[in-house]
């Protein structure tokens, strides 16, 4: 009752009097479930500070983190993750928190979960990964964010790199003024340079998985949808190249040459070596 009403002081007094903080009601609901359900962030933090069981699950196997995502309560989500709540716990439908967030499409919550380091391989009862769920729900931004994160963690593992600060790491859309010109060039290449399915050739060369390519293709259907698919693929690729500290202009020029796109490569180089900003990373 104290928790349901959001009364932290009453809850504290009850605990001091010997109440069991982890006791469940007949629906297997804990005090943390109730505080999360009702959006009482200070009370959630109080219960965490008193070492409440973070992983208790209700009859529907919803953890507090599942509930917080359903309620779009980012502050509670951050508190639970900071307290080391199991980021990959499953509910009755075998959905991880990332599955739920991917279905709902809240970009800020997705960003938080991705930075916490989710297991992307886990599947729900329908056999779908979180990426497949986001694609099915037509959340193109979320699809791209998940692919960026998948590629980032593979790169980090392969290179044993801890150089990227978690503070600066982001999987959201890039609106940085410093990348404006290269992003414009990539748009031009996707919309005015590549022919149908040629973006897939590049994606495969850059080790995009079949699932990732399929997820990109499931949005923006139509005769010329490949242009937007290619554009999105380029921006995902750019995210990884910049994190790795590589020169995207030089990198793309060389890869276009390798794949036999000589004319596109020369046009791309000329376009990017023309501006003042691009001269800083021109292809020699």
From TrEMBL:
Keywords per UniProt: ANK repeat
Gene: ANKDD1B
InterPro entries named in the record: Ankyrin-DD_containing_protein (IPR052457), Ankyrin_rpt (IPR002110), Ankyrin_rpt-contain_sf (IPR036770), DEATH-like_dom_sf (IPR011029), Death_dom (IPR000488)
PROSITE patterns hit by this protein: ANK_REP_REGION, ANK_REPEAT, DEATH_DOMAIN
Residue ranges constituting the Death domain according to the UniProt record: 198-272
The protein's name in its UniProt record: Ankyrin repeat and death domain-containing protein 1B
ANK repeats: 1-26, 27-59, 60-92, 93-125
Pfam name, any one: Ank_2
Superkingdom field: Eukaryota
Organism this protein belongs to: Thamnophis sirtalis
GO biological process: one example: signal transduction
Signal peptide: none
């Amino acid at each position: 009752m104290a928790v349901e009403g959001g009364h932290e002081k009453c809850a504290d007094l009850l605990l001091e009097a010997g109440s069991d903080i982890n006791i469940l009601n007949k629906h297997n609901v804990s005090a943390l479930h109730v505080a999360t359900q009702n959006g009482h962030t200070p009370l959630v933090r109080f219960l965490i500070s008193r070492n409440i069981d973070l992983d208790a699950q209700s009859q529907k196997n919803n953890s507090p983190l599942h509930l917080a995502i359903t309620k779009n309560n980012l502050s509670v989500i951050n508190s639970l993750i900071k307290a080391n709540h199991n980021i990959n716990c499953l509910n009755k439908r075998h959905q991880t928190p990332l599955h739920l967030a991917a279905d709902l499409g809240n970009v800020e919550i997705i960003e938080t979960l991705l930075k916490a380091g989710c297991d992307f391989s886990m599947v729900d009862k329908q056999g779908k990964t979180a990426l497949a769920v986001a694609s099915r729900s037509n959340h193109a931004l979320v699809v791209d964010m998940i692919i960026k994160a998948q590629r980032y963690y593979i790169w980090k593992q392969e290179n044993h790199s801890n150089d990227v600060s978690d503070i600066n790491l982001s999987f959201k859309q890039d609106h940085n003024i410093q990348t404006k010109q290269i992003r414009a060039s990539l748009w031009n290449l996707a919309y005015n340079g590549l022919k149908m399915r040629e973006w897939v050739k590049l994606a495969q060369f850059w080790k995009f998985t079949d699932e990732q390519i399929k997820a990109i293709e499931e949005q923006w259907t139509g005769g010329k949808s490949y242009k937007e698919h290619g554009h999105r693929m380029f921006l995902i690729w750019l995210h990884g190249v910049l994190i790795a500290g590589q020169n995207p202009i030089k990198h793309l020029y060389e890869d276009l040459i390798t794949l036999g796109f000589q004319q596109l490569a020369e046009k791309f180089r000329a376009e990017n070596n023309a501006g003042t900003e691009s001269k800083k990373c021109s292809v020699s």
